[in-house]
Structures are given as structure tokens and as C-alpha cells.
Amino acid sequence: MGETSYCPKKFAVIGAGPVGGIVAAFLAKGGYDVTLCDIVPELLAPALEPGILLEGVDSFQARVTRTTTRVDDLLEDPPDVVFIAVKATALPLIASALEGFAGEGRYVVSWQNGIDTELELAQVLGPQAVLRGVVNFGCVPLSPGHIRLAFHHRPHYLQELDPQAKEAALGISRVLTDCGLDTQHTDQIADMVWRKSVMNACMNPMCAVTGMTMVEIINDPITFNLVDALIKEGIAVARANEFSLGSGYYPYAINYIKNAGNHKPSMLQDVEAKRRTEVDYINGKIVEYGKQAGIPTPYNSMIRGLVKALEPK
Ligand SMILES: NC(=O)C1=CN([C@@H]2O[C@H](COP(=O)(O)OP(=O)(O)OC[C@H]3O[C@@H](n4cnc5c(N)ncnc54)[C@H](OP(=O)(O)O)[C@@H]3O)[C@@H](O)[C@H]2O)C=CC1
Ligand SMILES: CC(C)(CO)C(=O)C(=O)O
């Protein structure tokens, strides 16, 4: 990665779930100033002492600099970069809490799953302040401050929304890479988001509805047929909207799911914890983009409805 003029030193991570915990731990291990923010205080205490403990394909322990339960606190002594690692459903609230954060040299990264999450942030904060990431690891929380990384398919991807923020995207990618969270700057983030989301659109809701793990839904011939139909629908919608998934996408997606083994994706973790899910940002978006392009999406509509039926009312 070439030299960049943007050298952020101070970070905040909103969301102390497994994904936020992992970013915070890698940045803290790299010696950066990290504030971890979550509305659940029990998730924060161990991040300070004894530190966030990662196990699995990456294993180490690292202490963050400080914690807070209020996003507003981040505005008092603003960090250079805020990573958003909450579920997409929390975005409207977080975007409005961060209003006023944007300024010279300050950026917000959507480090999440889901289609168009960056646009929700940009609507409030302005496109020049927002970057989009694509996260390529799988993880589960074991207990507060203790996270298992089931797999880590480096690299992750990052892009600015506004060309003026390219140096920032390069600088943040360099910091993450130096810390061990290899991140590549791309100018095709929308394609990367769709590559990840079409896979999320089959494995996440299929596991959420059935309670099965990723390898189980591939190995069972009945659920495999549904996975197959969901991927093919997603591919058709992506193509009709001119997102490129790359050649050999179908076998890539099937292998990715199979190789994850007995891993529970985040949507199944949400259903088990009786939380709202991100299905509207994944299958719901495929349905929306399908409608726009005249592509029928009966499988995505059906599975979205089934997941919604499992959400708390
Ligand atoms: N788990 C995984 O393997 C992967 C997940 N992802 C994606 O990463 C994102 C984060 O996932 P994950 O870590 O599993 O999410 P979690 O829901 O486990 O963690 C998010 C945390 O943020 C908290 N939170 C919600 N709203 C706010 C708020 N306004 N201010 C501060 N904290 C808040 C949540 O609290 P509460 O629970 O009370 O709402 C929760 O503790 C999602 O988009 C997910 O799809 C991407 C790759 C892999
Ligand atoms: C890739 C996978 C399945 C990893 O857990 C994921 O993105 C999720 O759980 O939402």
C-alpha cells in the first residue's frame, strides 16, 4: 500500500458486539487510542480490564483506552475515525447522535453488513464524512469481552463515498492493515457489498429460520435447494442492477458457506437473543432492487417474511 497523508491516531468503535470488539482489539493491540461505545455497560467493563480476549483463528488480548455508554460523549473530544459496528437497524439513531461530528479530518466508517448502510449515514453526516467497509470474518460472542473468530478471510475492503476522502480511506486501510486487520482500498465497494450481501441473503436467514449452522444448510439437500434459489435470485438482481459479482461467484459462495463449518451467522445469533434482525437491509434490499429492475424475487420475499415473523413485536 502506498504512502498516504492521512494518519489517524484516535479511534472510536460504536458497538461492543463481536465485530466491534474485534476492530477495537486489533486497533488497541496496534497501540492506538480507542474508545469503545455501547449501550450495554456489561460489554464495556472487560474491554478496559483485563482487555478484550480473542480466540480462534486470531488469538490475543488487548485493552481499549476508555469506554462510554453514550455516543454523545464522542463529540466532546472527537476521535479522528468512528467505526460503526452495530446492527444496521440502529443506524438512524446513531446517525442522528453523530450529527455535528463531521469536520476536517474526521470520518465515520460503516463497518457492517447490509446494502446501502453507508447511504443512511451520508444522509445525515454528508457523503464526504462517510466510508464503507466490507467485513470478511465470522465471529461469535462467548461472554462479555470474550470473542471467538471462527474464520478470517483477509482482506477486508474500504472505500470513500466522496473522492475528496480517498486519502482518508487509504490512511485508515493502512492503519487497519498495520494492526493485523488487513484492509484493501477499493474503487468497487458497491460490487464488494453485493458479493457479501448475496451470500448473507441466503445463509443468514436460512440459518435464522431453521436454527441450523452454515455447513448444515449446505449439506441438507432440502435446505440446499433453497440456498441455491436464493443465491440465483440474488445474482439475477445484482446483474440487472449492474453490480459485478465477479466470475465463478456461485461456486465461491457455496464454498464460503460450506467452509464456515458449524458457525452461526449473526442473524441466527439475533433470533436466538430475541433481537430485531438486519433482514430488511439484506433480503429486503434485494427485493427492493429486484422490483426496480423488474426481476421477481419470490424466495427473498418469502424468507424475509419468515424472519420478520420471528422478530420480537
Ligand atoms: N457476527 C458476525 O460474524 C459478523 C457480523 N457482521 C456485521 O457487523 C455488524 C455488527 O455485528 P455484531 O457485532 O454481530 O452486532 P451485535 O448486535 O452483537 O453488537 C452490536 C452492539 O451495539 C449495541 N448498540 C445498539 N445500538 C447502539 C447505540 N445506539 N449506541 C451504542 N451501542 C449500540 C448493541 O446493543 P443491543 O444488543 O442492546 O442493541 C450491541 O451490544 C452487523 O452489521 C453484522 O451483520 C459482519 C461480519 C461478521
Ligand atoms: C459471514 C458471516 C456469516 C459471518 O458470521 C456474516 O457476515 C454474519 O454472520 O452476518
From TrEMBL:
Question: Where would you find the membrane-spanning parts of this chain?
Answer: none
Cellular component terms (Gene Ontology):
cytoplasm
The answer to whether keyword Transmembrane helix applies is: no
Ketopantoate reductase C-terminal domain boundaries: 189-311
Q: Which residues form a coiled coil?
A: none
The EC number(s) this enzyme carries? 1.1.1.169
Q: Does the keyword Oxidoreductase apply?
A: yes
List GO molecular-function terms, semicolon-separated. 2-dehydropantoate 2-reductase activity
Q: Under which main EC class is this enzyme filed?
A: oxidoreductase
Segments forming domain Ketopantoate reductase N-terminal:
12-155
Role of this protein = Catalyzes the NADPH-dependent reduction of ketopantoate into pantoic acid.
Family to which the UniProt record says this protein belongs: Belongs to the ketopantoate reductase family.
Query: Could you identify this protein by its name?
Result: 2-dehydropantoate 2-reductase
Q: Which organism is it from?
A: Geothermobacter hydrogeniphilus
